[in-house]
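Our preliminary data section would be incomplete without showing what the modeling component actually yields. Below, a chain of 608 amino acids is followed by its predicted structure, encoded as tokens that our downstream tools consume directly.
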Amino acid sequence: MSKNELVIKGEYTVTENMCLSKLIIDENASLKAPEGKSVTLKVNNAGTAPVPGTYYGDIKLLIGEYYNMEPHGLMKAIGKTEQIRSALVVNNNFVDKAKSIPEMFNGGKITSESAEDFSLFSDEEDFNGIVLTGNTEYEIKNAEIVLEGKGRNDFAGVGAGITAIDNAKVVINDSDITLAGETRCAVHVGGSAVVEVNNCNLINISPENKKWLGDFSWGIGVTGTNRLVQLADDGTVYYNNCYMKTNGWGVFSIDGCNDCARVFVNECTVDLSGPRANGYGGFCIGDRNTVSFNNSDIHVNGYAMIVRGMMDGAARAEFVNGCNVTGNRFGLISIGDIHTPVLIEDSDFHTGRAVIVTKGSSTSYEIVNSSLVSDEGVILQLMDNDDPAMNTDAIKVFAEGDVYEEGRNLTELHEGLDVVLDLIDDELCGNFFNSTTNLHRENSVKKGENGMGAIFGGLFAPPEGAPVFLDAPPEELEVRDEVNYDKMQKGPKNLFINLINTTVEGQISSASQSYREGLEWVDESTRLELSNITQKAAPTINNGVIVDINTDSTWIVTDSCYITSLSIGEHGLVKAYEGKELKMTIDGKETPIEQDKTYSGKIKLEII
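Predicted structure:
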């Protein structure tokens, strides 16, 4: 056997870099690195998992040290550090040679300030492309990164194509990043890093793993085994003129934010689709976070945006300046949101189901000069909360009829608890329904058996001696009264709809809601039944509807509606659709419809 050939039997320790033309790893044999280091196998131009077999060609066994990713994002809460293997680690604009494996790059020019004209391929689990830390200022240009295999922890950027943390300032230009593995993302931004991604193709292929699907994601009704890009802490990221494609559970994810995480999507093409795909485009979750889509084409099977702002009006979510949003299911959903302002301006939505779904939330929507089209005819689906929450096996969605809550005011807005919809300079055709009740379906759940430590495959099991995640928040944090929050936010809602220079043709009404016939419980196997309700106009119980027809606005009523307050401006108009007449009764008494007046009570509008 020549010196360029190696046969490994049993456990073999690689003590230095080796170049080979043939490598045989016997069955039950394994490679090992010296303590505190790692060994990476590269065959021809790609990193390869060192499994038993025979390898030919340009073979390298490469030794490197681990980079210790200090706790950030969601890992902060438990003080969890991750060890990462990476082709390149740059800290404060110095290449960390001990922790980098530069031989993994094919071609290109790699320096302490930039990396360009290279390719990087690997199918090893958890292997990172480039990690940028400290006060590094860096440019990545004309790169091709392809990584396959499972990732251990994308919350901390493990297995990401490019990871930027601390105070790194990074520009990624004209590059292609493709991933195909569970729980790993193309770009991870954390700390206070600022990243600009220009003219890039970012693709993440979600492998099928039915067992993994039930780990945690079923509770928000999404499927898939990865997300495309990830944002944490106080990071800021701009995606400009990029093509972004996945069939995973999300595109632009935010998890583990500190004070303010922000993502700006400008002139991009975003596509989440595929035969198994049901996910989200953006996830505006947390306190002062911003998710902004500007002049972009967004197609998502599932939800173009999930809104879950946890502080009163502090987050921002928007589609502006010519966004074109399509999807086979819903357009936008708010779950457990506290008064986040959502702006849709100069943009178009066309969805199969309801354009906007709201549950357990007090979201404020402003729709300006936009088109909202639903194939099923529902623009707003304000419904009972059916969010099962984590560590839950199932939620009971069947509930008996609602009963009026004594003293509940159905004609006024409860600030911070109700839903506001301002329609400005719009022409809309579709229905707006409020089917919320006082039944609190979220209280009827089957609790999970394994506790918080088992969620995410045990990823959040704290290190020895660390506080239990979510059970022992730091003392300096203000803790919300979850019991009262749930009781108020997840109870009945009044809906306030304000028409300003707008025409609406359709029903605006209190409504009933029903799930698929025979469905009583929703669990991970039936997750797509979450939000999947049918609403029909029905007399108001606890679900007040307040309609304000401002001057120069028109409501064209197409079928019976039940509301609790109606204000008509001096030149406002409420009428039946062409060829029909409209009859209004208030508390059972027929009442003429006049301009410059406000009516309240149990109002029924009926086509005659």
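Residues 511 and 537 are 4 Å apart (CA to CA). The first strand starts at residue 5 and ends at 8. Preliminary results of this kind motivate Aim 1 of the renewal.
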